[in-house]
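Weekly sync, protein design subgroup
Attendees: M.S., D.O., the rotation student, P.L. (late)

Item 1: inverse folding check
M.S. brought a backbone from last month's batch and wanted to see whether the design step gives back something sensible before we order anything. D.O. pointed out we never logged the input encoding, so this time it goes straight into the notes. Structure tokens as presented (61 positions):
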């Protein structure tokens, strides 16, 4: 899954971008009440475990 696809999924599930970093962005999920990082390399494929970790932190999976 690409970073751009993860970001679309996060926005669809009401997650909010908190701030931009150098190589990662900090996102907040109102579902879980947690903050988590997402890499900023929009066109690159994420490793499967990384994508699963982001979705779990967001409360999507």
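Designed sequence read out in the meeting:
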């Amino acid at each position: 899954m690409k970073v751009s696809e993860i970001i679309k999924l996060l926005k669809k599930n009401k997650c909010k971008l908190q701030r931009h970093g150098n190589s990662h962005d900090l996102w907040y999920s109102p579902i879980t009440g947690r903050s988590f990082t997402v890499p900023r390399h929009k066109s690159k494929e994420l490793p499967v475990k990384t994508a699963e970790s982001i979705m779990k932190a967001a409360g999507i999976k």
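Discussion: The longest helix spans residues 48-58. The mean pLDDT is 93.
Action: P.L. to compare against the previous round before Friday.
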